[in-house]
Amino acid sequence: PYPSLALFDAPSRELCTARRLRTNTPLQALVTLNDPVYVEAAQALARRALEERALADDDARLARIFELATAEPPREAERAVLRELLARRRRSSGGDESAAWTSVAAVALNLEAALVKR
């Protein structure tokens, strides 16, 4: 199987599996932050948030990214952490808005709420 699927304990396609086991390892976080598939997904999510005309400010964009990743609105504490991350990434990226928002989207996609079905 694809290497990231193996790290998420996906079954092989040779057999039918009625139920998958739940696992959580540090390697999974490395995969979701570095695998090209997840990086491209974060870029697409950031681009979508930046291009939506209804999202007039950063808070609306942060909430939209969080909601698309987790299917629930962010709490104020979560929103504050994402705001701080966005500010730090803007400073370190030299004003590259796309890179800053991609970092925020990557973090949102790496949240347990985005990865684990409850």
- The helix count comes to 7
* Through-space gap between termini: 25 Å
Low-confidence stretches: none
What would you report as the Rg, rounded to the nearest angstrom? 16 Å
List SSEs in N-to-C order.
HHHHHHH
Helix/strand/pairing category: mainly alpha
Shape: elongated
Mean pLDDT: 87
Main β-sheet: number of strands, strand sense, barrel status?
none
Roughly what percent helix?
A: 55-70%
Overall number of strands: 0
Overview of the structural elements:
The protein is built from 7 helices and no strands. With 118 residues, it is mostly helical. The chain is elongated, with a radius of gyration of 16 Å. The model has no long low-confidence stretch (mean pLDDT 87).
Can you give me a brief rundown of this structure?
By secondary structure, the chain is mostly helical.
Topology, please?
Blueprint: H1 3-7, H2 26-34, H3 36-51, H4 58-70, H5 76-92, H6 97-109, H7 112-115
Helix pairs in contact: 2-3, 3-4, 3-6, 4-6, 5-6
What brief labels describe this structure?
mainly alpha; 118 residues
